[in-house]
Amino acid sequence: MSIDEKDLGDDYEFARKQYYDLAEKGTEAIDLMMELAKNLEHPRAYEVLGTLMKQNSEVAEKLMELQKKKKDIDTKPIQPGLNGPDSAGNTTNNLFIGSTADLQKALQQINDGETIEHKPTTPSNRTI
Fold it and tell me: How far is CA 96 from CA 31, 52, 99, 112, 121, in A?
């Protein structure tokens, strides 16, 4: 397990614990507010109670989103050469043959997510 994976696991566990703590405290606050709203019978108390319930349900949704993001990260396929120096398929001493304009075009295609079709400039079709 690399340092990044350990950090990711630690961060996930921390965030998960925080969401659980918030949900528990939110449930306690809802119970207290429900008692208060019953005793006061004031519209504002019921409004606050509704807000607390909504916020507590949002915490539960965020917990589920966290689970989904963790699953997506864990199942993400390794792309050779794109996932860091430890990934398979590393290329070293790569040589680009072409003009700087060709290189800029190829880099722009990579940034745009296009497939690169490099046609190097030959002496017969090169402009100076």
Answer: 67, 60, 9, 19, 11
Number of residues written out for the chain: 128
What pLDDT shows up at residue 116?
Answer: 61
Nearest C-alpha neighbor of 34 from the set 49, 47, 24:
49
b/e 13-46 (16+ beta carbons within 10 angstroms → b): eeeeeebeebbeebeebbeebeeebeeeeeeebb
Note the pLDDT tens digit of each residue in 64-88: 999 999 998 888 765 555 555 555 5
Amino acid identity of residue 19, one-letter, is Y
pLDDT greater at residue 85 or residue 100: 100
Q: Smallest Cα–Cα separation from 45: which of 35, 37, 57, 53?
A: 37
Query: What are the boundaries of each domain within the chain?
Result: 3-74, 92-120
CATH number of 3-74: 1.10.287.1060
